[in-house]
Structures are given as C-alpha cells and as structure tokens.
Write a structure and sequence with these properties.
Blueprint (H helix, E strand, L loop, with lengths): L2 H34 L2 E2 L5 E2 L14 H8 L3 H4 L12 H8 L2 H11 L11
Antiparallel strand pairs: 1-2
C-alpha cells in the first residue's frame, strides 16, 4: 500500500474520532441549553430552544382510533398499501422465475448505491 493511501487512512480515522468527540460534546451542550431555555453569547449569537409539536402517527391499535372516530375514520386516516422486496430477493427471484425474467426483475428493482468506506 502506498504511503499516500496509508496517510489517508490514518487521517480518516483521526477525523472520525474527532467528529465523534465533537458530536458527543455538542449533544451535552444542547442538553444544557435546552434545560436553560436557550441563551446568547457575548457576540450576540443565539441558541434558541424550539418546542416542536408531537408528530402524528398511526396508533399501534388502529381499532381504538376507529372506535373513537366512528364514521369519520376514513377522513382522518388514509389506507396505504405498500410493497417491499422480500429478504434474499435475488435468490428468491432466481428460484421462482426463469433466468431471463429473474434478471429483468432484479435489474428493474436494483437502485445504484455509491461506494462507501468501512472504517475498522
């Protein structure tokens, strides 16, 4: 391996460690500022606490919501049907379909992914 690549790996590891430390420090700072209700520094830069409304989600027991809403349930919730590929999609497609059809459906369903680095 070239010295340039070794230097990049070393520097990458150092940056990742610094980012983790800074992320942890920032989380602590934000926690303290939330407890304090926000604040301002000597240069006039502000940290404002934003109170968000709780998000709306489908309850675990949809029947409870249906019982409360009654005839208006359909106006409060929309029914959504989704499909997702099964685990081992490529293998299952190969076992169920002809080689040509398996190749076509796999190609249709694949989405390109950018390469990434696994740091270890």
């Amino acid at each position: 391996m070239s010295k340039k690549i070794e230097a990049l790996v070393t520097r990458g590891h150092h940056i990742r460690a610094q980012m983790k430390d800074l992320k942890d420090e920032l989380a602590g700072i934000e926690h303290s500022l939330i407890d304090a209700g926000g604040g301002e520094d000597a240069d006039g830069r502000k940290a404002t606490v934003i109170e968000s409304a709780p998000s709306i989600a489908v309850p675990e027991n949809i029947d409870d919501a249906q019982g409360i809403a009654g005839e208006h349930f359909g106006k409060l919730f929309e029914k959504v049907v989704t499909y997702k590929p099964v685990k081992s999609f490529r293998e299952v497609a190969g076992a169920l379909l002809t080689k040509a059809k398996a190749g076509r459906i796999i190609s249709l369903c694949e989405k390109p992914k950018a390469p990434w680095i696994k740091w270890s």
